[in-house]
């Protein structure tokens, strides 16, 4: 479920794993159309690392 959130709302995924500062930075990145893809990739990577770590 978190991975699905990471793709659709990358900033929200950071809040679900307890990293609010990264979530705010991700939201700023996501506000640009070009920044959506890197934000989604970053969030998906962070969520996958959170599950493993």
Automatic annotation (TrEMBL):
Signal peptide: none
Localisation per UniProt entry: Membrane
InterPro entries in alphabetical order: PMP3
GO cellular component: membrane
Pfam families named in the record: Pmp3 (PF01679)
Transmembrane segments: 28-47
Alphabetic keyword roster: Membrane, Transmembrane, Transmembrane helix
Record carries keyword Transmembrane helix: yes
Keyword ATP-binding carried by entry: no
Family, as annotated: Belongs to the UPF0057 (PMP3) family.
Name of the molecule in the record: Proteolipid membrane potential modulator
